[in-house]
Specification:
The chain is an all-alpha fold. The chain is 45% helix and 0% strand. This is Cytoplasmic protein.
Amino acid sequence: MNKPIMAKATAVWLVDNTTLSFKQIGDFCELHELEVQGIADGDVAAGVKGFDPIANNQLTAEEIEKAEKNPLHKLKLKFNAAAVGEEKRRGPRYTPLSKRQDRPASILWLVKFHPELADAQISKLIGTTKPTIQAIRERTHWNIQNIQPIDPVALGLCKQTELDAAVQKAAAKKAAAGEVMTDEERRKLVSTEQSLGQDTEEPAIPASMSGLETFSLSDDRDDDDRSSSNDVPDADSFFNLPDAGDDDDEDDAKR
């Protein structure tokens, strides 16, 4: 059942002008029964002016009368043909004031590490505008020199699952268009669940470290080489120190 507009003010009017039970009013206005009782006692919604649901085309007098006669009857909103198809339009994601200064850093991170994402996807993820995204893409933003890329998940601007879903959708769209992705782009499309479940027996060499592909991260030497390399000479081998017996012979000769 849809909630009436100005639900608490409507509950105030119903408490003051009808004999409906607290439960009936609470069910209709989506309020707790004790909260409606608080309205009747004057402890809740003090100073709130009642909102007439009959005059505002939300209830009919016949519906209220029927509910007053039968305590088990649930009030129903009056059908309004003009309201059909007027569902709430979904706009950009709301971002708290305390986090709005972090949005440029998140946009730069998404543009840098996920260039396959469209402006509309970025706008939906972190609740920003397309001109701001375009300015950061073209590096014409007024503060571009001071912006450092930061993961929007770490800043709390979106969830990891939402970012993974957007990246996967962008990848599917790119594949449908016939564009070939590089290995680096393909690695970025791995979701969090997949990356956590992968085997990590051999550490991967970053792509930026070119020229190190021929080096192995494991010790491939045989046992003889290892044993010879582990034979570290002691300190006496570095100095020609005489034995203790030679010192005694020299003392006897002097006597």
